[in-house]
Amino acid sequence: MIDTVPWSDGVWTNDPADVVTDGTGLHVTACEGSDAWRITSYEFIHSSEHALLAPFEPESAIEVQFRLDFAEQFDQAGIFVKVDDETWIKAGVELSDGEESLGAVVTRGMSDWSLSPVPDWSGRLVTIRGSWSGNSLTVRARVDDEPWRLVRVAPLDAAAPVTAGPFCCAPTRAGLTVHFTSWRTTAPDAELHTSA
């Protein structure tokens, strides 16, 4: 079963510069300098991301879709899964060094970061899926109706409540507006690897 999550069900971690809801979805304008990162390599802690979060239950999955339209270094959007201020995962697409890249940041005290270029995704509808099963979050992504790609398998074994939903950040500029077209919950992935 697939259920649409109303935008009004979420609570912002940090208020965006502007939010407009219309018949096509949610348009979120990020504040200049917004970001989520902890310590690794850069030595700073940023927790100014715009994440619209609702309760995320074990043995379920969330899917967030947005139109990829980035222009400046580190423009980013996707899903944010939060346990607490030091334990969270963000996954989606980010403009890094001039090209759109699919990736994830997994944070457990300190952040890590992985990226894979997807230059042919620009201007298209991107869906990021986070599937929580057992002790892990499996992140997959696709563009339009193309097959899912495995992005990351990360630990997610929390006794505390977990929240999740769409997010965006604009670390280097003002004026980034992300058009989110859907936010849904569904059953978790049946297995990590699909048969050929």
From TrEMBL:
<protein>
    <submittedName>
        <fullName>DUF1349 domain-containing protein</fullName>
    </submittedName>
</protein>
<dbReference type="Pfam" id="PF07081">
    <property type="entry name" value="DUF1349"/>
</dbReference>
<dbReference type="InterPro" id="IPR013320">
    <property type="entry name" value="ConA-like_dom_sf"/>
</dbReference>
<dbReference type="InterPro" id="IPR009784">
    <property type="entry name" value="DUF1349"/>
</dbReference>
